[in-house]
Design goal:
Helices cover 40% and strands 20% of the residues. The chain is of the alpha/beta class and 531 residues long. Helix 11 crosses helix 12. Keywords: NAD, One-carbon metabolism.
Length: 531
């Protein structure tokens, strides 16, 4: 970020950890600078945690590591690592970005990893439930977001036998706050991180690095179509695919009988349909209200585009919050289901945009739900939100072409001033419930814990010889396998109505105490600001 008072380029990275962990991070940063700038070896120590690092040509970087609390405060583990470029003589923009990037991309401390792990006990506990390490002779190709959850997922996969050098993460590229730190942490573990936007290159690089058969953990149906269409000769090197999103299932359905690998379809499982869909919907609506705290939605018209597993729940939550909800879906059975559920429906989006004039539009199709000529019917002053993992869910380019001007609203999103009035796309068209810079947004850890644990369980199932899955999605066997895992029972015991009462009554009085698992999980959530 930029220091607006002095004009100096400045970056600040917030850490959680002990003083010793902070010193290790600082030492790593200094080593990185030594590798990037030969002149950095001539640095001067100004005091505890403070160094003046020359970068060459008269430029210098002031680096400081200090507690975020004052000496009078109780130690809370918060540290601030800062760097200020005092003189950029002889440095181009690329060199400045490289220097500051050495402080922005630092791995997580042990304290932070512990906090992440405590938030996801089901996922982290799989290593104890599967002591035979089923992934020890298996490569892994993962598609995902660079969020702290991914750190726990990768650490769990390694604990289950996966070798870091046989793992590749395909980054979906969303601008999460801590994405550079997540990548640095994965780099430190030896896990390759490649951009999803060049999936063919990623597939070929993975094949060059990994000799053993691999399992794909996908989120959006990206890998298998690319394998079939761009690198079909690599298909025999894969044992199967774990798919966690309905958008991905729909992509696989377009392949029809061409699907050559077994698919562990967490997306279609009872866990995903019966538990996750409702809390996703709640997190979506909560995130919208947090982005627009002064907007009155009670009694206002809303439109949900896409009446699938999540869209149906979003419509129900909005109706439960006293909005007048209309629904569109391109598939007749879903449109009929919405009609019979009492929603205003129409087979064409323009009819609902022009007649219902929704203040809020939520698109959840997994394709492009709002775009093309439909954009001409948007009422001025409306808000548009995406729930899909597809960046194309909302036709942002179409809005930009129609706009008289485009306004950046920061964390809220982008406002397009159209002839009929302004249209605000929340969260820049990304899934509105994904965390984008504050701890309040995004899904509650306990629900993502269950889904991520089911995904890792699926990878372990497909890695075993004789897993019994035939080619294509096998929802019945997926449900049976998840039931066998005991994850739902453990989830119920951790978070269900028995928590804090009955057999757990002894821990109730000290449930928030620092020595208990519940207390540690609460403390972890409070001290780690999610991406």
């Amino acid at each position: 970020m930029k220091d607006t008072h002095s004009g100096h380029a400045t970056t600040i990275t917030e850490l959680q950890g002990t003083a010793e962990q902070g010193r290790l991070v600082l030492a790593e940063v200094l080593d990185r600078l030594d590798g990037a700038f030969p002149a950095a070896a001539g640095r001067h120590r100004l005091g505890p945690g403070a160094h003046l690092v020359p970068l060459g040509g008269g430029s210098a970087l002031l680096i400081a590591l200090a507690p975020a609390s004052t000496p009078r405060d109780r130690w809370n583990g918060r540290l601030v690592l800062s760097a200020t470029l005092l003189d950029r003589s002889g440095l181009g923009d690329a060199d400045v970005a490289r220097a500051l990037g050495c402080l922005e991309a630092v791995p997580f401390t042990g304290w932070e990893c512990e906090a992440f792990t405590e938030q996801l006990p089901l996922l982290a506990g799989l290593a104890r439930r599967l002591p035979d390490k089923p992934l020890r002779e298996c490569g892994l190709l993962l598609v995902g977001h660079l969020l702290s959850d991914l750190v726990v997922q990768v650490r769990t996969l390694i604990a289950l036998g996966a070798r870091p050098e046989a793992m590749t993460v395909l980054d979906k590229g969303y601008p999460h706050k801590l994405r550079q730190r997540v990548r640095a942490h994965l780099d430190g573990l030896g896990v390759a991180v490649l951009p999803l936007c060049d999936v063919e290159t990623a597939l070929r690089l993975h094949a060059a690095r990994v000799m053993e058969p691999s399992v794909v953990v996908d989120d959006g149906g990206h890998v298998l179509p690319a394998l079939l269409n761009l690198a079909p000769e690599l298909v025999p090197a894969y044992r199967g695919v774990v798919e966690q999103s309905m958008a991905g299932v729909e992509e696989l359905e377009t392949l029809g009988a061409r699907v050559p690998l077994p698919v562990f379809s967490v997306a279609q499982s009872r866990v995903k349909r019966g538990i996750e869909a409702h809390w996703i919907a709640e997190s979506v609506v909560r995130s919208i209200r947090e982005l627009l705290p002064g907007e009155g939605f009670d009694g206002a018209p809303a439109l949900v585009i896409g009446f699938g597993t999540v869209g149906e729940q979003v419509a129900a939550v909005l109706r439960g919050q006293r909005m007048r909800v209309a629904v569109h879906d391109s598939e007749w059975p879903r449109l009929l289901a919405a009609h019979e559920a009492g929603y205003l429906t129409a087979p064409e989006v323009p009819a609902l945009l022009d007649g219902h004039r929704p203040l809020l539009i939520v698109s959840s199709t997994g394709r492009t739900g709002l775009g093309g000529d439909d954009l001409d019917f948007l009422a001025g002053g409306c808000f548009v939100a995406s729930v899909s993992g597809r960046v194309s869910e909302i036709d942002m380019q179409g809005l930009a072409r129609r706009a008289e001007r485009v306004e950046d609203l920061g964390r809220v999103g982008v406002r397009y001033v159209l002839p009929r009035g302004p249209v605000t796309v929340l969260a820049d068209g990304l899934p509105v419930n994904l965390p984008r810079g504050d701890a309040a947004s995004g899904a509650p850890a306990r629900q993502s814990d269950l889904t991520m644990a089911a995904v890792v369980w699926g990878a372990c199932a497909l890695a075993r010889a004789g897993h019994g899955f035939a080619a294509g999605p096998d929802v019945e066997r997926t449900d049976a396998s998840i039931a066998e895992s005991g994850l739902v029972e453990r989830y119920y015991r951790l978070y269900g109505p028995g928590a804090g009462v009955g057999v757990r009554g002894r821990s109730r009085s000290r449930g928030g105490g620092p020595g208990t698992a519940a207390g540690r999980r609460t403390r972890g959530r409070a001290r780690i600001s999610e991406v």
